[in-house]
Amino acid sequence: MRYKLTAKQCRNTLVVSAGFLVAGLLLALLTPAALVISLGGLLGCVLGLLQLGSYTATDESGIITRRFLLRRTIPWTDITSIDTNTVRSLTTVQVTRANGRKVTLGAPRTGAGFADPDFTPALSQLTAHWHQSR
Question: In the chain, what are the domains?
Fold first, then answer.
């Protein structure tokens, strides 16, 4: 199975970030302090572009996930739980490893402005695959 961010999620991330960039640049005409807003928008645009490649895939050996530029492979035998984590309005999937460390998966994710109607079925499939592969 392979889970990716939806096109709407990617578009919304870039639109919000670009909005901050444009607003910051326009406000910078009035006051130099507003450059901080445009720098935040620029950083958001860069992070948004990097998110376009986020995914989570499963195979017989475990979970492969990519967020930003980091790619991780987590063996099924190293996973102790699969849960959701909600921060503000964004819900992501977290995997707890045998050493206690939590890894947030690149996809699926859902939330206000980033709704994914397939989030719950994807989470169920991911959890079922984990239970079958242990």
Answer: 2-133 (2.30.29)
